[in-house]
């Protein structure tokens, strides 16, 4: 076994694992870990792949890795960023990085709210698609991908966990796509939960694990606990009238924001009685004096900060992970959405009465003040969010426990009852060809019947008409 997170994976690392039929678990999107309720009889050898150049996806995957390590499993993670696991948990972890992949979006570095506002939903969908394809092209050219290709020739993994959001990059490492979808996908982990998002019908092997990354757990002996710095703690502890946290995501670069917008925000924050913890990226330059009640930081452990007792509101972009963190902690939100799912998340939050939407294009000192004061002093937002938080947490199994159980279950029962029914279905059944054929046949027969009735009625009407005309002609002649 290779110990530590900074050592390179070797082919012998996983040779102690019993040879089993490999199965694949796929999760859609994404920090503490809870002990799973069920464990495998032997530690599993697990390969986790996260190839989408997204910080949020990496965070989600990292927390799943930590959960698996807590159960004693051996994990080899290949991701877009360094898998930061320290202390005792790192003993069973090896990792590699798709080098340079996070730079694949450098050409969008100077894009900001002004540019995003110009694009409609179709253009954003196109840009997102192109970004995913470009990222996949970069992935397969990395040294990590080449090493992985060699590794799988000799190393047998019990379970493969792969993020397939936006693309199925690296699918070809295992087998042809149609064979994977039919024979190898055991369980799909989805970063959603019906308490927040509209419920949808799902097959038994599609499991909702939304909130996996925010589940609070008891740290194990020797575990390194992530927390905020001492100066942030002092700032939060001293906020007697409450704190609002501002974090508009990793995609927003404050250097792209117009100075008049930043000035409006600074002026509005200076008028508040509450304290403000404002996350500004490292390249942001604010040419205005920061008010005494405002603390700016380059990065914050967001979930840990939101769990502080004095945090009363959260101003965010409406990304799914940030939204789930706020819901979990019961913190009402101000949402400034920019693109993709952020706008739909904002609509859901507003409809549930747990947040206020503040669009960037109408942002001003007055609008910022109104939104913050409304969220602080109208207690209905906090009340509704606390109720939503209770519902979001109330599940048969916490999300991380469910994810870990599903991975262990896939290894124990590779052909169990949770596997997709597509495995036993023909191509005709998989694509509902028989259903469509029946519908076409039914519609065709219905048309024939309707046409037959139409022509029969037409003949009957013509017959009656001719009889009437004939009788009228005879009566005139007589």
TrEMBL record:
Keyword Transferase annotated: yes
One Pfam match: UDPGT
Gene3D superfamilies, sorted: Glycogen Phosphorylase B
Keywords for the protein's UniProt record, in alphabetical order: Glycosyltransferase, Membrane, Transferase, Transmembrane, Transmembrane helix
MF (Gene Ontology): UDP-glycosyltransferase activity
Highest rank taxon of the organism: Eukaryota
TM spans (from-to): 16-38, 435-461
Keyword presence, Glycosyltransferase: yes
Family: Belongs to the UDP-glycosyltransferase family.
Name of the protein in its database record: UDP-glucuronosyltransferase 2B17
């Amino acid at each position: 076994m290779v110990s530590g997170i900074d050592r390179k994976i070797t082919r012998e690392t996983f040779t102690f694992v019993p040879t089993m039929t490999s199965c694949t678990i796929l999760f859609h999107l994404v920090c503490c870990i809870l002990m799973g309720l069920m464990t495998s009889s032997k530690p599993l050898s697990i390969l986790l792949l996260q190839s989408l150049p997204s910080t949020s996806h990496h965070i989600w995957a990292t927390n799943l890795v930590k959960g698996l390590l807590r159960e004693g499993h051996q994990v080899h993670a290949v991701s877009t960023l360094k898998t930061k696991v320290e202390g005792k948990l790192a003993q069973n972890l090896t990792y590699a990085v798709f080098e340079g992949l996070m730079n694949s979006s450098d050409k969008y570095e100077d894009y900001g709210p002004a540019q995003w506002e110009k694009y409609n939903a179709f253009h954003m969908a196109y840009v997102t698609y192109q970004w995913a394809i470009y990222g996949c092209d970069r992935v397969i050219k990395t040294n990590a991908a080449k090493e992985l290709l060699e590794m799988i020739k000799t190393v047998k993994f019990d379970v493969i966990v792969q993020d397939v959001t936006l693309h199925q990059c690296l699918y070809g490492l295992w087998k042809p796509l149609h064979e994977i979808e039919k024979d190898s996908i055991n369980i799909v982990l989805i970063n959603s939960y019906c308490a927040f998002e509209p419920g949808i019908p799902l097959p038994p092997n599609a499991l909702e694990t939304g909130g996996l990354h925010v589940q609070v757990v008891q740290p194990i002996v020797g575990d390194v606990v992530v927390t905020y710095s001492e100066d942030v703690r002092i700032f939060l502890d001293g906020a007697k009238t409450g704190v609002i946290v501002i974090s508009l995501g990793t995609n927003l670069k404050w250097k792209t924001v117009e100075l008049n917008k930043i000035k409006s925000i600074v002026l509005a924050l200076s008028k508040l009685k509450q304290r403000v913890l404002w996350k500004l990226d490292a390249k942001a330059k604010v040419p205005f004096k920061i008010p005494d009640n405002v603390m700016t930081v380059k990065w914050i452990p967001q979930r840990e900060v939101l769990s502080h007792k004095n945090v009363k509101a959260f101003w965010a972009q409406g990304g799914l992970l940030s939204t789930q963190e706020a819901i979990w902690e019961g913190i009402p939100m101000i949402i400034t959405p920019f693109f993709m799912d952020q706008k739909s998340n904002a609509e859901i939050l507003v409809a549930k009465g747990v947040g206020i939407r503040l669009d960037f294009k109408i942002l001003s000192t007055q609008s910022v003040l109104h939104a913050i004061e409304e969220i602080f002093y109208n207690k209905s937002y906090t009340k509704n969010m606390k109720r939503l938080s209770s519902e979001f947490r109330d599940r048969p199994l916490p999300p991380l426990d469910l994810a870990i159980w599903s991975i262990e279950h896939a290894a124990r029962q590779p052909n169990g009852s949770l596997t997709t029914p597509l495995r036993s279905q023909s191509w005709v059944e998989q694509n509902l060809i028989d259903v469509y054929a029946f519908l076409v046949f039914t519609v065709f027969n219905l048309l024939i019947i309707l046409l037959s009735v139409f022509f029969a009625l037409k003949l009957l009407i013509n017959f009656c008409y001719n009889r009437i005309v004939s009788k009228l002609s005879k009566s005139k002649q007589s």
